[in-house]
C-alpha cells in the first residue's frame, strides 16, 4: 500500500461545493488502495481577509498574534473536508500543524520547518483514516504557533511527503500544470510534461507563482516526485523530478517575471574595502531583501552602488540610508520604481554560451531598456520597465523557441 500526499490550494477549496468535490477525490484515491494525507489551504481569499482585519486594527501587528490569526483559515478547511468525507462514509481526521508534528524555527511569518514527528499522522493512516493536515503552519520549540510564509501550504505537503516516505506529492491547483510562462500574459505558453527540480526552483524563486520555492527545495533534497495538476479536470499535470528526459534539446525551458521592483542608487561612496559590507549589513539587519547589485568605480575612484528591492521595501530602505548618511558618506541617493524583472531559465545554459547575448539582442530589437542584469548557472534576469514586462516576456518566449507552434517542430526533429 502506497502513501500519497496531496495538497489543494485556496481556489480548489473556495466554497462548500468545491470542498465536497475534494472529499470525493480523496475517497477515490483511497478506494484505489492508497493511504492518503491531504494538506489544504484556507478557503479562497480568506487569508487575505484575515490580514485585512488585522490591518483595520493596527499597522504593526504583533507577529505572534498575526500567526495565531492567519492559521485559523486552514483550520476551517480541514474540519469541513473531514465532515464532507464523513458524509461519504469515509473515516477521516483533521490535524493542525502542531498535531501533525510540524516543528519550525522560532520566527513568525516566514518560519522554516526544522523537523517532523510523523507518528500521529502515521498512526491515523494505519487505522485506515484519511488524514487532513492544515497547511502553512507549525509550532516552534517555545510552543508558539508559526506560519511558513504566504503560499506555504505547498511546503507543508512536500515536507510531510518527505517525512512519510510518500510515493509522490501532488499539488492540485487552479492551473493544469507548470507552464513555460504564465499563460495569462503569454498566449503562446504551453504546459510542460516535466521539469527538473533545479529549473523549477529557479523559476519559483524568480517569481513563477505556481509553487512555493521552499516546497521545491524540500522535494529536491528528499527526492520527492512532485506533481502539479488541476483540481478540476483529471488531466495529466507536470512532473517535477531529477532529470526530465523530454525536451533536453531546449536551452531555455521557461520564463518568469515579476513586477513591483525598485532600483536604488547610492552615489559617490568612499571607495573602501568595507563600504559594501557596511551598506548591505545595515539593510539586512532590517530584514530588507536585496536582489540585484551593481557596483562601479567612477573615474576619480569614488563608488556608485545600485541595487534592487521590492517596491514595498523602498520607504524603509531610504530611511535606513538617510539615518546612516554620516557613517556611509555618500553624496546622493536616487531611486526608480515601476520596474520589473524578466528571467529566462534552463539547465542547458550551463553548456551553451551566448544565451544572455540572445536575450539582450531580443530586448534591443523590441526597444526595451535593460536597467540591471543578473545571471546564475541556469538563468539570466533583466530588470526592465514594468510597462515593457509583458512585451519582453512574449518576445523572449518566441526567441527561445518556447511557443507552442515552435515546439511541434522541435518534437518532430527529435522523433
Ligand atoms: N493560506 C496561505 C496563503 O494564502 C497559505 C497557502 O495558501 O499556501 O498564503
Ligand atoms: Mg500557492
Automatic annotation (TrEMBL):
EC number: 2.7.2.4
Gene Ontology BP annotations: diaminopimelate biosynthetic process; homoserine biosynthetic process; lysine biosynthetic process via diaminopimelate; threonine biosynthetic process
Domain ACT as annotated: residue spans: 264-347
Residues involved in ATP binding: 7-10, 173-174, 184
Transmembrane segments: none
Gene Ontology annotations for the cellular component aspect, listed alphabetically: cytosol
GO MF term list: aspartate kinase activity; ATP binding
Keywords: Amino-acid biosynthesis, ATP-binding, Diaminopimelate biosynthesis, Kinase, Lysine biosynthesis, Nucleotide-binding, Repeat, Transferase
Function description: Catalyzes the phosphorylation of the beta-carboxyl group of aspartic acid with ATP to yield 4-phospho-L-aspartate, which is involved in the branched biosynthetic pathway leading to the biosynthesis of amino acids threonine, isoleucine and methionine.
Name listed for the protein in its UniProt record: Aspartokinase
UniProt organism field: Salisediminibacterium beveridgei
Amino acid at each position: 500500500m502506497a502513501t500519497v500526499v496531496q495538497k489543494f490550494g485556496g481556489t480548489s477549496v473556495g466554497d462548500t461545493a468545491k470542498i465536497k468535490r475534494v472529499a470525493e477525490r480523496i475517497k477515490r484515491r483511497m478506494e484505489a488502495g492508497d493511504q492518503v494525507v491531504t494538506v489544504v489551504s484556507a478557503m479562497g481569499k480568506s487569508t487575505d481577509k484575515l490580514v485585512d482585519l488585522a490591518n483595520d486594527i493596527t499597522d504593526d501587528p504583533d507577529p505572534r498574534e498575526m500567526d495565531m490569526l492567519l492559521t485559523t483559515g486552514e483550520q476551517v478547511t480541514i474540519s469541513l473536508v473531514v465532515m464532507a468525507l464523513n458524509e461519504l462514509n469515509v473515516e477521516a481526521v483533521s490535524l493542525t500543524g502542531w498535531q501533525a508534528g510540524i516543528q519550525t524555527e522560532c520566527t513568525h511569518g516566514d518560519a522554516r520547518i526544522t523537523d517532523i514527528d510523523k507518528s500521529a499522522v502515521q498512526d491515523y493512516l494505519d487505522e485506515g483514516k484519511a488524514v487532513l493536515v492544515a497547511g502553512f503552519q507549525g509550532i516552534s520549540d517555545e510552543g508558539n504557533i508559526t506560519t511558513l510564509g504566504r503560499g506555504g501550504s505547498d511546503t507543508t505537503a512536500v515536507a510531510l511527503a518527505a517525512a512519510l516516505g510518500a510515493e509522490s506529492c501532488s499539488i492540485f491547483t487552479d492551473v493544469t500544470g507548470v507552464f513555460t510562462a504564465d499563460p495569462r500574459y503569454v498566449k503562446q505558453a504551453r504546459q510542460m510534461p516535466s521539469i527538473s527540480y533545479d529549473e523549477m526552483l529557479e523559476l519559483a524563486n524568480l517569481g513563477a507563482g505556481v509553487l512555493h520555492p521552499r516546497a521545491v527545495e524540500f522535494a529536491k533534497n528528499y527526492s520527492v516526485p512532485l506533481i502539479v495538476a488541476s483540481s478540476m479536470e483529471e488531466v495529466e499535470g507536470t512532473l517535477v523530478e531529477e532529470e526530465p528526459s523530454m525536451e533536453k534539446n531546449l536551452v531555455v525551458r521557461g520564463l518568469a517575471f515579476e513586477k513591483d521592483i525598485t532600483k536604488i542608487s547610492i552615489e559617490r561612496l568612499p571607495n573602501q574595502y568595507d563600504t559594501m559590507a557596511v551598506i548591505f549589513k545595515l539593510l539586512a539587519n532590517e530584514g530588507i531583501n536585496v536582489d540585484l547589485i551593481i557596483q562601479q568605480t567612477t573615474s576619480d575612484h569614488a563608488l556608485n552602488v545600485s541595487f534592487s528591492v521590492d517596491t514595498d521595501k523602498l520607504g524603509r530602505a531610504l530611511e535606513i540610508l538617510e539615518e546612516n548618511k554620516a557613517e556611509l558618506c555618500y553624496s546622493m541617493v536616487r531611486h526608480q520604481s515601476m520596474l520589473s524583472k524578466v528571467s529566462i531559465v534552463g539547465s542547458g545554459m550551463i553548456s551553451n554560451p551566448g544565451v544572455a547575448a540572445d536575450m539582450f539582442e531580443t530586448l534591443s530589437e523590441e526597444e526595451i531598456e535593460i536597467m540591471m542584469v543578473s545571471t546564475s548557472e541556469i538563468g539570466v534576469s533583466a530588470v526592465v520597465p514594468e510597462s515593457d514586462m509583458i512585451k519582453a516576456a512574449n518576445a523572449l518566449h518566441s526567441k527561445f523557441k518556447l511557443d507552442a507552434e515552435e515546439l511541434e517542430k522541435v518534437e518532430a526533429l527529435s522523433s
